[in-house]
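Support request, please re-run this one:
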Amino acid sequence: MMKTLAFATLPVLFSLALMITATACADSNQDGNIPRLPANPEEIPPRPEGANATRFVVIADMNSSYGSTTYNEHVHKSIELIREQLKPKVVFSAGDMIAGQHRDLSDDDIRAMWKGFNEAIHDPLGDAGIPFAPVTGNHDASGYPAFAGERELYEEHWTKADRIPELNYLNKEKYPFHYTFAVGDAFFMALDITTMKRIDDELWDWMEGQLRAAEDYPLRFVSSHIPPCPVSIGREREVIPSPDDDRMRELFVEHGVSVYFTGHSHAYFKGRKEGLNLVSLNCAGSGPRPLIGTEEPQLQSFFVVDIVDGRIAEAFTVNSDGTIFDDSTLPEYLEHEGVTLPRFDR
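Re-run finished. Output below.
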């Protein structure tokens, strides 16, 4: 009886196995092998501890109006939360730390803004033992020729001995514009993408080389300022142009990038596009914008990632008032002119 049952069940089991294999292959081909991001927790969890645990924060668009040397209350509250409660191992930028990209600003104006950034953000974090890893934005290091002087001052600022973050650098040849570093078993890549121009061959080669060298790291994170997909109202066209947007997604999926963080849109969206986790950060400073298809902007915020034993345990946004953003309230999709960005769980 037992043998009859076993043999009778084999065709069913074999068919089921074929169905599971086919489904897995379809998912792999269409959606990649990068695990999806988890939904937000209900409250801020304790910082993970142990040799195989890391917490890091990603923050973007901290600036205010052109030439401003001070930061608004949302920035100050966020920095306090990061210092006193979250206590990450590193704060990773997604650009726009100061409010440049204006032809009326002198070199002295730019230096005064960097001084204000140090006083409000860099030094308070540094005093708490938290390094700040910069990423270029269009308002602090625009790649357009008219603002070459601002890029020189960006480099001047971030290459001073007391401003270079203490990190485990893997490639520092092009710092502070492009560089890579590691925190525990996580790899980080900072990209200098501040315009809507096509990405040059040199950067493509550099990115691919860095990602190949990072194959031993179970988690890989990338940050640039300009996003690959439209996210917010008024910034729909301010994205990495086609076909570079698709080429970047394919490159990052091929090399197992865990999350690609971007700024500039001034709106938070946790997305997933054809196998790649994409997190658009809301501004931490002035000027939040509504997501495409919505009417009201979100409260200023920043993003937190907890890593435990080589996996992402938590990935959530903290509002400047200390509350956690409810990911279930995000639209299921963002759509603009044929470009669709699904929510992380779609």
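The mean pLDDT is 91. The first strand starts at residue 53 and ends at 59.
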